[in-house]
Structure of histidine kinase:
Amino acid sequence: MSEFVRLLFGRRARRRWIHLILGGALAMPYVFVGQLVVGPATDSRYVFHDLPLQLLSFAVGLPLAALTAALFPLTRALEAGAVRSLCGVDAGLLAHGPARTRAAKGRTAAWFTLHLGFGGIISGMSLAVPPFAGFLAALPLLVWLGGAELVELPESLDHAWVLALAPVAGLATLVALAGCAAVSGALLARWAPALLGPTPEDRLAAAEARAADLAVRNRLARELHDSVGHALSAVTLQASAARRVLDTDPEFVREALAAIEDTTRRTVGELDAVLGVLRDGDGPGTAPAPTLRADLGGLLRRTRACGLRVTAAVDADPEALPPVLSREAYRIVQEGLSNVLKHAGGRTNVALRIEIADGHLEITVENPLEHTPACRPGGGHGLRGIADRARLLGGTAQAGAVQGVWRLHVRLPMKGPA
């Protein structure tokens, strides 16, 4: 019994009833337009006082409602918002944007017609049934108080048992009204995902938007990892080395502090460029992304200041490299040197080769195997980021132990899907 009462008068049923009443309110302008058509067509001056003519006006107005929904794409977004709030339908099953395609507009028109149709009927019943039910419930009392003087009764109601059943009939009409509202609301809630849900085009657009967002986030993550991670590794080693010789080699300490200052200044500029993408309504920061052409020498100088003995052999002209390739290659070299800094502690030899072979830019970073840059516990993202950069450029990246050394080897096509 309690379950039956909950289905008819529970919170969800009441909210769906409100949704139907809103549909009836939206239907009223179309009913008035329908009356302007039905009145002259039937030669009737008082359409509003004639129930059959009112129903006919309602039927004439519904096609106009469907046409309105088809002509205004935002109808789908508005109706979907009302369904999410009042009908208890999962938001993931409904479309969020306006209807753009012909199929989406047709389904929105069908939904709008159903909403206004069910809503108009339930709204009319909600206005008419409660007063009638109240009259039936009060009928025995009215007859007892004044008989025919207060209420003009048909002959059939002179019997006491008929009067006794009148309150029951009034209650039954209220229950019937609640049942009609609950069934109508449940049907609309069931049909909403099919009529207001995303179309295949909507799902494809959403998937493309998610993929684009994920690509931007991955790019930002790589940029932050490579620039900030390299800077922190370099600054840590420089500060540690300066602390050890603070009392014995002031000149080295000054060079280390100068290198720290230069590293942090450049990293703050790069960080501003990356974070500018994340600010609403803001474009990329003013600091340009570093490239082999602009900062290879500076990168090597700052790395050597950390204690690494870097031997660089550059057989490619950085000036001739495409900007995107030069930028990504710089990040790959930076991350390769940063890996050695983190895992070798800044006290080892590093061989860097940058050359062009068979239409590819090849980058090789090698250091002794005893300073293997293996991933730290919990995993690292440096080698994964290098592999991602190489894959996006149509190239390859390999890292591992080869003939007594740890080698990072990356091949990037000079012309590819950059």
Observations:
- The chain has two domains: 2-198, 209-413.
